[in-house]
């Protein structure tokens, strides 16, 4: 990671002296390298792909003399080998082929989508056997139908066959709420906790001010005690409803 930081420091220095290759001033990146150079200079190194790592190292070596004038030595940064370059090119070609196949399948209406409480998979005619092998399969008016619990298996099928997964953020939120229903939510002007009997969780919730309702087997807090409810959910590993999750600014860890 330290080596990658050195690489990015070098690219950031070049970017600071670069005007986007507008003028011939021999400072910063030349015209072909300006776009990728500035992008890599801004992007966190943790997010760099293998191709971007090799490209950034090659850029540092290409501009080593200019970097030396800025007091930056890049002699310790290795130049990518021909085998590495070929490997990246082959991966890029495979990705391009996959993207084309995805586009073709999307145009023909193939892929995974959601209709209400059912996941629907549309497949080429010669691939119907793949769908029937997935647990929960049934025929619907829209195609191969599956329960929401089959999502992981269907996404694996789509990856293997290069099929698009047409699920929006709202679709995924709906599936998550069905498969993992919130255990802490706002109901009737109060915050309600619903979870199977569990003494450690009971103690945590009680210790933060919740009261128990015997006939409903629930814990509750006044709606104004949102911070305490979120903290109780965090400590007890309980799932928050979307509105409480929004107020928490994130998602508490899902219990194992």
SS elements, strand count: 8
Low-confidence stretches: none
- Shape category: flat
Radius of gyration, Cα only, in angstroms? 27 Å
Count of discrete domains: 3
Termini separation (Å)?
A: 32 Å
Total number of helices: 11
Q: DSSP strand (E) fraction?
A: 5-15%
Largest beta-sheet details: 4 strands, antiparallel
Percent helix: 40-55%
Q: What is the typical, i.e. mean, pLDDT?
A: 86
**Strand line-up of the largest beta sheet:** 1-2-4-3
Order of helices and strands: HHHHHEEHEEHHEEHEEHH
Q: Which secondary-structure class do the elements indicate?
A: alpha+beta
Key traits:
single chain; 4-stranded antiparallel sheet; alpha+beta; 3 domains; 256 residues; 8 strands; 49% helix; MutS, DNA mismatch repair protein, domain I
Task: Provide structural commentary.
The chain is α+β, with helices and mostly antiparallel strands. It folds into three domains: 2-80, no CATH class; 108-177; 181-248, MutS, DNA mismatch repair protein, domain I (3-Layer(aba) Sandwich), CATH 3.40.1170. It is built from eleven helices and eight strands. It has helices at 2-16, 31-42, 50-62, 64-69, 82-107, 128-132, 151-161, 169-179, 199-207, 226-236, 242-248; strands at residues 111-115, 118-122, 138-140, 143-146, 184-187, 190-193, 211-213, 218-222. Strands 1-2-4-3 form a four-stranded antiparallel sheet. A hairpin with a 4-residue loop joins strand 7 (211-213) and strand 8 (218-222). Helix 1 crosses helix 2 (31-42), helix 1 packs across helix 3 (50-62) and helix 9 (199-207) runs antiparallel to helix 10 (226-236). The two termini are 32 Å apart. 20% of the residues are buried. The model has no long low-confidence stretch (mean pLDDT 86).
